[in-house]
Design a protein that fits this description.
single chain; alpha/beta; Rossmann fold; 3 domains; three-stranded parallel β-sheet; 15 strands; 41% helix; 15% strand; globular
Length: 435
């Protein structure tokens, strides 16, 4: 009876988190308690924008979302960059290390900017940290990779308004193609995801006969990853299904949290659980799996889907999931699942996994090399349209597990640029070059 009550509580909480009516009510509640800041008070305006963004992320009504956006954009015009204290919203704003980033191209001259690639909003906002950040904007074009989906966060609205020049942004959801231009005319949308930068050379798929796992789930242990859904489904799957879970601690939840959940569902002996694996180990486990699954309902790009495809392991996700990488799922790469019949659908997916050919599709469509070319072509086009020059292409980029250059010779070539940025602006773009 105790286990039954715990399962009920977990599933009710999860249902409430994603139930549209509940989210709409929370949205309207946040709007009700969001006042109007005093005119001229930059800090108060920023606080109000942050609250409006939280409301915008909750609504599924396009008209209401646009009305909230209009209020946010109007308030952005009241922000005084010189008076805004970012440490209230980004506690480590003063940290000069932007290590989840890479220099893709050096500064060539006044008519040919360098290119910086920076992931995560709390990192690229630090480009406003130097006193001479306007000089930084004159020397470098910035490409950002948002982590928030929907993208309504204070930084995404404020940064392009303060950092002069166009800001090239990746997307986390197809809807973002329309969202970003409404947020700021300075955004230039790049039709690529954070999950579009996997290096296929890092994955060495085993033959189907050699694969030791039937199903793999790679996800941190946070509630949003919804491990409970898989544990519940295991009760209706064959007991000999070989399942591997890989994750890391998140939001106070650990591997023991998942094991305790599994005991509550009566499936503690149905899977293997590994925590805090290196990226190299994770790629190896992908290549040992016949299939993989993601059970989140809402998140950004979800690189795990792309990594699975390059390991030649078809991937599955919920049919109503709002996840960017759902655009990678097709008959060749995987399938969508009905949560009401999750055990049945997963069993069928595993049994028919060998019919898919995900790596062939992934290499042709979403490799880091193809994405680098797409980004390079767009940067070059926009540069020439502005009347600038383009004599040097960007270096190939991969996300493994952080943004980094593919070729060691490019990393060596750009080491001097890294040092120059430190000297000029006090910022470390990417990890220090290996000496």
């Amino acid at each position: 009876m105790v286990d039954l009550f715990k399962r009920w509580r977990i599933e009710v909480e999860d249902w409430l988190r994603y139930q549209p009516r509940v989210r709409r009510a929370m949205c309207r509640c946040k709007l009700w308690f969001t006042g109007r800041p005093e005119v001229g008070n930059t800090q108060a305006a920023a606080r109000t924008i942050a609250k409006l963004c939280a409301a915008a992320r909750l609504t599924d009504n396009d008209n209401l979302e646009r009305r909230i956006q209009d209020r946010i954009v109007a308030l952005i015009g009241q922000l005084n960059a010189g008076r805004l204290d970012w440490t209230e919203f980004v506690p480590d704003f003063a940290d000069p290390r932007l290590h989840k980033a890479a220099i893709l191209k050096p500064y060539v001259g006044p008519r040919e900017k360098g290119v910086l690639f920076i992931s995560f909003e709390t990192l690229w906002i630090r480009l406003l940290r130097p006193v001479n950040y306007r000089e930084l904007a004159e020397r470098y074009t910035v490409v950002v990779a948002p982590s928030s989906s929907p993208p309504h966060v204070l930084i995404n609205y404020a940064f392009p308004a303060i950092f002069s020049g166009p800001v090239f942004t990746l997307i986390s959801n197809p809807k973002d193609v329309e969202e970003f231009p409404r947020m700021s005319p300075n955004f230039v949308v790049v039709p690529l995801y954070a999950s579009s930068w996997v290096n296929p050379d890092l994955f060495k798929p085993l033959s189907k006969a050699e694969r030791k796992w039937d199903l793999l789930m790679v996800a941190n242990f946070a509630k949003v990853k919804r491990h409970h859904a898989l544990l519940s489904a295991m009760r209706f799957m064959p007991k000999d299904t070989r399942i591997l879970l890989i994750g890391q601690d998140q939001d106070g939840r650990t591997a023991e949290t998942i094991r305790a959940l599994a005991r509550g569902y009566g499936v503690a002996d149905r899977f293997t659980l590994l925590g805090h694996q290196s990226y190299e180990a994770i790629t190896k486990h992908y290549c040992e799996a016949r299939s993989s699954v993601v059970l989140s309902r809402r998140e950004g790009s979800c690189v795990a889907i792309a990594e699975s495809l390059f390991a030649d392991a078809p991937a599955a996700m919920l049919k109503d999931a709002s996840i960017g990488s759902r655009v990678f799922i097709n008959e060749q790469t995987g399938r969508f699942l009905d949560e009401q019949n999750l055990g049945r659908d997963l069993t069928d997916f595993v049994q028919n996994a060998d019919r898919h050919q995900p790596r062939v599709w992934a290499e042709a469509n979403i490799s880091c090399f193809r994405s680098t070319q797409t980004l390079n072509d767009l940067l070059k086009q926009k540069s020439l349209e502005r009347g600038d020059e383009w004599t040097l292409d960007i270096a190939p980029l991969q996300w493994s597990p952080d943004p980094t250059l593919v070729r060691p010779e490019d990393r060596a070539r750009l080491a001097g640029e890294w040092a120059d940025i430190v000297a000029r602006f006090g910022l470390e773009i990417g990890p220090p070059p290996v000496q």
